UniProtKB/TrEMBL annotation:
Residues 286-396 form the ABC3 transporter permease C-terminal domain. This is FtsX-like permease family protein. Residues 70-221 form the MacB-like periplasmic core domain. Belongs to the ABC-4 integral membrane protein family. It is found in: Cell membrane. The chain crosses the membrane at residues 15-39, 279-306, 335-356, 368-390. Pfam families: FtsX, MacB_PCD. Its main location: membrane. The keyword Membrane applies.
Length: 404
C-alpha cells in the first residue's frame, strides 16, 4: 500500500489529526511515568528487610522514669519470656518499618571534615541480634565482650556490623573488615558485614540508602529501654502478641504503650506501605481511564472518517480494491497518527520524569518503559480502529456508489 495517499488525506484533516495525536502523546507520557511509579512502589513493597519478619513482634512503651530503666527492662524481659509460646525476648532501639530509629551522619575522615553517608544506627542486646536472623556475609558476629554499656549515643570504640550496601558505598572495591568510621566523636570499627537490614523508614532515603544500617551491640540500660523484641512461632505470634500486650499492663501499669510501633513486624510493613498500595491502585485506575478515553477518541475519529469517505471507499471497491485493502488503509492511517503521537509522547514523558525526579526523588525513566508504552499505544490504536475499519471494508461497492 502506498503511504502518499494516506498522508494527503491526513493533511486535509490537520486539526483532527493533531488533536488525536496530542491525546495519544499525553496518554503515552502518563502511561510511561505511571507504570514506572507503580513498579517502583511494588518493588519497594517487596524490599528485603533482612530480618525474620514472620516470627517477630515489637512492643514499645514510654512514660517510665529513666532512672528505673534497668528495673523496667528486667521486669519486662522476665514477664514477657514467661508467656507460653515466647521463644526469646530482647531489647532493641527499633526495627524495620517502625517509627523508631536513629539517623546520623557518618564519616571515614577522623577529622570529621566531610560526612559520607546518613545511616540508621540500631542498638540492641545479644538476644535481639540473634532473633533478627541477620545473614552474615563477611567477618564475624559480636561475642559477649563486644556488648558494652551505653554512655551516651553509643559506646565509644564500638565494634559493629554494617550492611553490604553501606560497605560498598563507604569502601567500594575493598574489604570493610577492620575499617573505621566516626559519628560526631564516636568511633566505630567494622567486625562483620550482613546482607540486608533496612532502616526503619526506608522510603525516606530512596533506593540507594534504604539499606544503610549499622548494628551496635550494647548492654541495655537507661539509654536502651522501652522497646522489646519478641520471637514466637509465626502461627502462634498473633496470640502471643495479644497476650504480651495484656501482660505489659500487669508488669508495668504506669507505662504508656505506643500502639503505632507495637505490632508484629509483618503488620508494621503492611501499615508502612498502605499509602503506596493506595497510590498504585489509583494510578492503575488513571491508566485504565486514560486508555479508555484514548481508545474512544480513536474510534470516534475513525468512525467519522469512514462515514465521510463512503464514496471514496465505494469507488476503490468498484475499481478492484478488496476488503483487506480497505482494512489495511485504515490500520496504516491509524498507525501513522499513533506514531506521531508517540514521538511527541516520548519527549513529554521525559519532561514529566524530570519534574518527578526533582519533586519526588524518583530515578531516571528507563528506555524499556518508553518502548513498552509505545507498543501498548500501537496495539491500542490498532484494536480501537479495527471496528470502524471492518465496517468500512464491509461496505458493498453498489451501496457506496449510490450516493454519487
Amino acid at each position: 500500500m502506498q503511504i502518499q495517499p494516506i498522508l494527503t488525506a491526513l493533511r486535509r484533516h490537520r486539526l483532527a489529526t493533531f488533536l488525536i495525536a496530542l491525546e495519544i502523546a499525553l496518554a503515552c507520557a502518563v502511561l510511561c511515568n505511571a507504570c514506572f511509579l507503580i513498579f517502583n512502589r511494588v518493588d519497594a513493597m517487596h524490599m528485603v528487610s533482612g530480618v525474620d519478619e514472620r516470627s517477630l513482634a515489637l512492643i514499645d512503651v514510654d512514660g517510665y522514669d529513666p532512672q528505673h530503666a534497668k528495673d523496667l527492662n528486667a521486669r519486662m524481659v522476665a514477664g514477657l519470656s514467661a508467656i507460653p509460646g515466647v521463644k526469646s525476648v530482647g531489647i532493641i532501639n527499633g526495627v524495620p518499618f517502625s517509627q523508631l530509629g536513629s539517623m546520623n551522619g557518618i564519616t571515614t575522615d577522623p577529622a570529621g571534615q566531610h560526612y559520607n553517608n546518613v545511616v540508621n544506627t540500631y542498638t540492641g542486646d545479644a538476644a535481639s541480634l540473634h532473633m533478627l536472623g541477620l545473614r552474615l556475609v563477611a567477618g564475624r558476629m559480636p561475642v559477649p565482650d563486644d556488648y558494652r554499656p551505653i554512655d551516651g549515643f553509643v559506646p565509644d570504640d564500638s565494634l559493629v556490623l554494617i550492611t553490604r550496601s553501606l560497605a560498598d558505598s563507604l569502601w567500594p572495591g575493598s574489604s570493610p573488615l577492620g575499617k573505621e568510621f566516626w559519628c560526631i566523636h564516636f568511633h566505630f570499627r567494622v567486625i562483620g558485614v550482613i546482607d540486608h537490614l533496612v532502616i526503619p523508614q526506608p522510603e525516606s532515603r530512596g533506593p540507594a540508602g534504604r539499606d544503610w544500617s549499622v548494628f551496635v551491640p550494647v548492654q541495655p540500660g537507661a539509654q536502651l529501654a522501652g522497646s522489646y523484641l519478641l520471637q514466637a512461632d509465626p502461627r502462634e505470634l498473633p496470640r502471643v502478641f495479644r497476650q504480651a500486650m495484656l501482660t505489659v499492663k500487669k508488669i508495668a501499669p504506669d507505662v504508656v504503650i505506643d500502639h503505632d510501633n507495637s505490632s508484629a513486624i509483618s503488620d508494621l510493613r503492611e501499615a508502612y506501605f498502605r499509602n503506596d498500595r493506595s497510590m498504585a491502585g489509583l494510578l492503575v485506575g488513571v491508566i485504565l481511564a486514560l486508555m479508555l478515553v484514548t481508545a474512544l477518541g480513536i474510534v470516534g475519529l475513525a468512525s467519522f472518517w469512514v462515514q465521510q469517505r463512503r464514496r471514496q471507499i465505494g469507488i476503490r471497491r468498484a475499481i478492484g480494491a478488496t476488503r483487506a485493502d480497505i482494512l489495511r488503509y485504515f490500520q496504516t492511517e491509524n498507525f501513522l497518527i499513533v506514531s506521531l503521537g508517540i514521538a511527541f509522547g516520548v519527549l513529554l514523558a521525559y519532561a514529566l520524569n524530570l519534574v518527578l525526579m526533582r519533586l519526588y526523588e524518583v530515578t531516571h525513566l528507563p528506555v524499556a518503559y518508553l518502548l513498552a508504552s509505545a507498543a501498548a499505544m500501537w496495539l491500542l490504536g490498532q484494536l480501537a480502529v479495527l471496528g470502524p475499519a471492518l465496517r468500512a471494508a464491509a461496505v458493498p461497492p453498489v451501496v457506496a456508489t449510490r450516493s454519487v
